[in-house]
Records
---
Amino acid sequence: MRLTKLANWFSDGDLEKYKQQAQATQQAQAKLHKIESELEKLSNDFQAAQKELAQKKAQLQINEGFQIELGETQLKLQKVDAQAQRYKQELFERQKQLNSLQSQFKQVQQALTKSQNWLQQIKTPIEVTEINKTLPKQDFDTLWGFGIITPAVNSITTTGAIVVKGWVLGKKADAQTLKVVCQGENLLETPIELRRPMVAQQYPDIPLANQSGFEFCLAVAGMPTKTMLSLEAVLADRSVVPLCNLVLTQTIESKDT
C-alpha cells in the first residue's frame, strides 16, 4: 500500500522570496520613472524638430529665388527630416521599453499580492471547535479502542498547519493505516505504527498496543471558514472503520491578544 504524507510549513525561504519580490517591485518602479522621464524629453525634442521643420519650409518658400540659399536650406531641411525620423524611431523604441517595464511591473505586483495573501492565510487562526466520535455501534467489536491525543477542542493554530496525534488498536484485525477524508476526498493516509506506552499500559496483554500510534501534519492555510475532517482506520482485513470528525473553524484574533 502506497502511503502519502502532506505537510505545509512556513519557512525562512518563503519570507526571503517575499522580500526579493518587494525589492524587485521598487527597482521596477525606479526604471519605470526613468523611462517616462526620457520619453517626455524625446517627445519635447520631436516637437521642437517638427517646429523647426515647419520654419525651414516657410523660409524655403520665401527664398525660392535664391538658388544657393535654397540648396543650403534644402540640405538643412533634409538633416532636420533625418533628425526628426531618428527622434521618432527612438521615441518608438522607448515606448516599447516602457510597455515592457509596465508589463514586468504588473507581474511583480501580482506575485507580491499572491505572497501577501499566502502569508495572511498562514497567519489566519484556525480553531478546533469540535471532535465528534463517529464509530458506529455495529463496529464497537472491531476495535479495542482509539483516542486523539492532540489537538484538543478549542486549541488554535496560527502556523498554517495542524498536527494530529492519536492511537487506534484493532481487535478483530490489526489497524494498519489512518485515512483523513474531507468532503469525500482522501487527503492523506498514514501508518499506524508509532509507540504509545500509555496504550500499552492500558492494554498490557495485547502485543501491538505499544505500536498503535499515528501522527500527521495537515496544511490548513486557505481552508474554508469551516471544515470537517473525517478520520478513518483501515484494518488488515481491508475494512474501514470511521473514528471521529475534527471540525476546524477560522477565527478572528482578539485585539487584546
---
Amino acid sequence: MKAIAKNIRISPKKANLVAYLVRNKKVTDALDILKFTNKKAAPLIAKVIESAAANAENNLKQKRDSLVIKEVVINDGTTFKRHVPASRGRVHPIRKRNSHITVALATATEEKPAERPTKKPAEPAKPAEEKPSTPPTKQN
C-alpha cells in the first residue's frame, strides 16, 4: 500500500536524513523511532506512514503489526523563489524548497530478500620463489 504527501514545506535534503532512519523497518518500530527524533521532518514522515498504514488496514484488510516499510522516497517539490535585498541595489536569490514524500508498505511475509549464494573461500597464495641474493655493492 502507498501514501503520498505533496509539497511539504521542508527541503528534500533534510527530510532524507530522517527517512534514512525508518527505511526497511516495521511500521510500529518506525513510528516509535520518529516519535523521539528531534527533527522537523519526523512528524511529517510519521503522518505519511500513518496514512499508508491506514490505507493498508482499510483497503487490504491487513494488520498493522505485519506491515513493513518497503520504501520511503523523498523527491523535490515546487520551489518558492524569493529575494533578499543586498547592498548596492542588488538582490540575492533565496530558494525555499518543498518535498514530495512517498511511503510504500509491504507485509512482512510478502517481501523477503533472496539469500545470496555464498562464495567459495579463496585459495591460499603460493609462496614466492626465493631470489638469489646479489653481492653488496661497494659504497664510497
---
Amino acid sequence: WNVSSESEALKQTVREKNSAKALLGLTSAILDLSVAMEALTVKLLGSRQTPLHTRKILWEISGESAKKILGTKLTKLLTKKISIRLGAQVASGALLTGLNIYDAWHAWQWNDPSIYGYLLISMGGLSGTFGSIFGGAAIYLGLNPLGWAALLLIGMGISVVVMLSSTPLESWLANGPFGESNSIDLYLQDSSEALYRLISLLAGISITIDKNPDYETQATFDFRAEVPHAIRSADTVIRLESRLPGLIGALDSVSIRAECRLNKISAVTSNKGLPYQTKTEIVGKAESPNAQRIHANSLELFFVTPNQHITHSLKWAVRAQFILTRNGEKHYFPAPPVKDDTKYSPTFSKPEFTKINQPFWADEITHKAKTND
C-alpha cells in the first residue's frame, strides 16, 4: 500500500511537471539514500573490516596538472583521490542543484513566491558539490566551510518553500482569469475550465468512515421506531460530504457515484514469526449498502462490517465521484489539482481500488474528513 501511495505521488509529479523531473527526483533520492547508508555502514564497521569497495581509489588527479588549471591555492584544497563515494556525492549535489533550479522555474511560471526557497536549495546543492570537490578545506565539526554553507542554505530554502508556497486557491487567483497568464497555465484562462476548477477547490469533498451511532446489536423490526431497521442493523456509516449543493444553486443538479469494497489487511511475518509489514488486498466486489440517507450536503451509506479475525482485519475502501450537470454539460468532481491540466475522459469512468488519488475520484485516504471541518 505504501508503494502504491508513493507511486501515485510520482504520477502526480509527472502530470504537474514532466516525467524527466519525476525520474530524476527519484534517482536523486535513491542516490542520497545510498550515500547515507554507505556512511552508516562504514561507521558501524569501524576499523574491523577492510575498506569498502566504495572507498577504494579509482583515479588520482596529478597535482601538477591541477595547478595549471586551478592554481596553487585551489589545488591544495582539491580532493585528488577519486572514489565511488566521492563521485556519488558530487552527482547527488549536482542533481539537487539542477532539480531545484527546475522547481524554481516551475514556481516562477506559476507566480509562486516559493521560487526563492528553491533558489536557496539549489545554491546549497552547488555549495555541497564544491565542498566535496574541494575536500581539503579545514574541517569544523565534521564539515568544511562549504559543507556548512550547504547545510545552512538548504535548511533556509526548505523553510522558505514551506512558508511561502502558494495554496491551491492562491495559485488559481494568481494564474486564472484575473491573474497573470504564462504558457504553463493557459487552460486556466478558459472561463468554463477556470470556474470548474474553482468550484472543485471550494467543494470541500470529504469521506468519513465511522461507527453508526444508531446501531443496535439486536435490532428488531419495529414499525413505530423513528430509525428504520436497515439503519439500526448496520454497524458502519460511510458519509460522503460536499458543499456542491450550496455552491451551485437550484438550477443545476448533483449526483453521486460511489463504490465501497472491503480491504483485507494482514501482517507479513519473518522466518521468526515477527510481523515486519502489512499487506493490503481488495476482497470481493463492490458491496451494496444496507440503507442510504440523504442530507442537504451529504449522503450516508450504511454497511455491516464482517467480524475481525485474528490473522487479519477488514477496512472499507471508498471511491466516490460527484457529477454536476450544468446546461446539459457534465462536470466531474473532485477535479485534478490546479497545476494539473488533466481533462476528463472515459479512462477515468471507473474507480481503481489498487491506487489512491485517482483523478476525478475521491477516496477515504486523500479526502479523509478533517476534524476541524
---
Amino acid sequence: MDPLVPAAATAVVTAMATESWEQARNAVVALWRRARPERAEAIDAELEETHAEVVAARRTGDRQAEQGLVGDWQRKLRRLLDADPALGEELRRVLDQELVPLLPAEERSGLREVTITVTVSGQGRANVAARDQYITEG
C-alpha cells in the first residue's frame, strides 16, 4: 500500500478530533468534489459521523475504535486513488498543507513515512521491521 494512504487516513481521523475538525472536513470534501463530485455529499456526512465517533472514542480512551476509523478512511482513500492514481499528488498536498497544520504538534510525529530498502546477496538474511521485532531461533 502506498504509504501516503495510511498517513492521510490517520491525519483525517486525528484532525476530526480537534477543534479545527470543520476545516479538515472541508479539505477532504473539496478533494472528493474534484475527484468524484457525485460522492462529495456522502463523504461530508461520513466525516460528520467520524467526528462524533472519534470524539467519543477519545473520551472513553477507546484506541481500538479510533484505529477502526483510520482503517475505514484508508479504504476510502485507497479506492479514490485506485480510481484515479493521479490524485496522489493532490492528496499529498491536502495532507501536507491542509490536514497536518491542523493537528496538535504531539500528533504530527506519527505521520512520518518510512521507506526501508534492503539488499541481500549470497547467503545473507535480512530482518526488517518498522517497529518491534522478536526473532527466536532454536
